[in-house]
Write the structure tokens for this entry.
Amino acid sequence: MSDITRYQGVIPAFYACYGEKGEVSGKAVDALTEYFVKKGVKGIYVGGSSGECIYQSVAERKAVLEHVMDAARGKLTVIAHVACNNTRDSQELARHAEKLGVDAIASIPPIYFHLPEYAVAGYWNDISAAAPNTDFIIYNIPQLAGVALTMPLLREMLKNPRVVGVKNSSMPVQDIQMFKDEGTKGGRDFVVFNGPDEQLISGLVMGADGGIGGTYGAMPELILKLWTLTKGGKLDEARQLQYDVDNIIYALCAPKCNMYASIKEVLRRREGLDIGGVRAPLANYAAEDGEKIAQAVKLIDEAMKRWC
């Protein structure tokens, strides 16, 4: 039986780290991992949307995870997203992740072709079978994957004893309650992560065990404070902080560049942390974005003074 306490807390999604020529930078991966260790988060989610997984090769994704594990082992919970848009490459990444000793692997459903649910379940179970000693987490993000986790599909996946949770990035908070209720039937240990950063307080109140978020890295102290306030029952304060966090998220999305490019520029300005840009076709930071990035930095600084 899995120790689910290792998944209970704030788990930032790990950003893709590149060098000057756009190559994956092990040095930058090391620096970002150490940044999260110092901030005191529970763990990191590697190789997902924030990690630009669909724009990286299998070899690059392996290299990123190797650097992460060298720096994070024994310090952070590590969940490795291993999905590719074919089963063979996904299994290769799953085997590699298990060999490195990650806490769990995760996967979105296969995208582009609209597969029947039995085929989605087969894809996930085949990936899990490649890492038979490692926890498996379903990643539900229907607005991007084009496939939603339904209750019949979840029930089918719960036949696999390695399935320990769902990273839920659908917008209805009710989904968290439904997945949690189904997953814990019969006394089974089962975790559900809140995915939409804009509603972390709502997800936690509804029963989420933790949060995995793409904007957490820009303001980990604020997310940790939001976690503490919500878990401590100080919901009025938590609500106000959530509003501040949401305004920061809106500011991060305001520039012309991709949101992750905004976050990386914020990290450069606030933390002196340079992990490169984003990979095409994502839009990189440009000088015209400078004023809006400055506004995001200002909002973070002001919120830090109020809350931390």
Summary: The longest helix spans residues 235-253.
